């Protein structure tokens, strides 16, 4: 997985009723876009994350001109 600043990581819930958790990549700490990543949740909490197989990368959307 290779991410860049502004991409989103979606961690899928593991059990029925558990919602997906979405975070934004604010810093890439590994070489060439590889993990770990510093991420920020919607509530402002930041942490360092090395995504597992239950995570999906959503590239940031390019701004429209």
Structure, explained:
This protein is mainly beta and 65 residues long. The protein has one domain. The protein has no helices and 5 strands. The protein has a 5-stranded antiparallel β-sheet, with no helix packed on it. Strand 2 (21-28) and strand 3 (37-41) form a beta hairpin.
Helix and strand topology:
Elements (H helix, E strand, L loop, with lengths): L7 E4 L9 E8 L8 E5 L4 E4 L5 E4 L7
Antiparallel strand pairs: 1-2, 1-5, 2-3, 3-4
| Order of helix and strand elements from N to C terminus | EEEEE
Task: Give the overall average pLDDT.
Answer: 89
Number of domains: 1
For the termini, the CA-CA separation is 29 Å
Number of strands: 5
Give the DSSP E fraction (strand runs of 2 or more residues).
35-45%
- Main sheet specs: 5 strands, antiparallel
The helicity comes to under 10%
Computed Rg: 12 Å
Structural class call reads mainly beta
Strand order of the largest sheet: 4-3-2-1-5
Number of helices: 0
Oligomeric state: single chain
* Mass-distribution shape: globular
Low-confidence stretches: none
Protein name: DUF1918 domain-containing protein
Pfam family, one: DUF1918
InterPro entries: DUF1918 (IPR015035)
